[in-house]
């Protein structure tokens, strides 16, 4: 996972490695203008609750250029999962190999990208949750 300059919802600059916190993560790249992104966001919020006991984080990285739109979206939909905004959307997408949205990356605790999913998905579907738990468990102990 490359180091990317990000901004949190409070407007503070952070780096992607600090944001990941050395834990495995499901990292969703999205934008407020992307209809499939908006549709899947509630299931990502549910996934965050389902995977938290396993030590797996669910993170949303917005590639919006208007930070206020992101903050309004998060408030409107009551999202509590960690959301950050890329300083340079095009740089972030290129660095992560993302060509379309939504795209979700599976990031190991060591920061390596283990795989990805392109397109909308019901992230809270029981089969999807089992698949994710299995994917991360295959990489060894999850909790640091």
Can you characterise this structure?
The protein is of the alpha/beta class. The protein has a single domain (about 5-135), classed as 3-Layer(aba) Sandwich (Glutaredoxin). It contains five helices and seven strands. β3, α2 (about 35-50) and β4 form a beta-alpha-beta unit. The radius of gyration is 14 Å and the shape is globular. It starts with a strand and ends in a 7-residue tail after the last helix. It comes from Aromatoleum petrolei.
Run of helices and strands: EEHEHEHEHEEH
- The geometry reads as globular
Strand proportion, as a percent range, falls in: 15-25%
Terminal CA distance: 18 Å
Supply the helix-strand structural class.
alpha/beta
Helix content: 25-40%
How would a crystallographer describe the biggest sheet? 7 strands, mixed
CATH topology: Glutaredoxin
Biggest sheet strand line-up? 2-1-5-4-3-6-7
Organism: Aromatoleum petrolei
InterPro entries: Redoxin (IPR013740), Thioredoxin-like_sf (IPR036249), Thioredoxin_CS (IPR017937), Thioredoxin_domain (IPR013766), Thioredoxin_ResA/DsbE_sf (IPR050553)
Main location: other
Keywords: Cytochrome c-type biogenesis, Disulfide bond, Redox-active center
């Amino acid at each position: 996972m490359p180091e990317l300059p990000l901004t949190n919802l409070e407007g503070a600059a952070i780096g992607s490695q600090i944001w990941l916190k050395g834990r495995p993560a499901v990292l969703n790249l999205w934008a407020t203008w992307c209809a499939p992104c908006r549709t899947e966001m509630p299931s990502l919020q549910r996934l965050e609750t389902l995977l938290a006991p396993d030590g797996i984080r669910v993170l949303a990285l917005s590639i919006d250029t208007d930070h206020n739109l992101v903050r309004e979206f998060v408030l409107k939909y009551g999202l509590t999962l960690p959301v950050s905004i890329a300083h340079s959307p095009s740089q972030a997408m290129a660095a992560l190999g993302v060509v379309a949205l939504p795209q979700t990356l599976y990031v190991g605790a060591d920061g390596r990208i283990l795989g990805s999913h392109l397109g909308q998905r019901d992230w809270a579907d029981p089969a999807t949750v089992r698949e994710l738990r299995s994917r991360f468990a295959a990489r060894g102990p999850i909790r640091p």
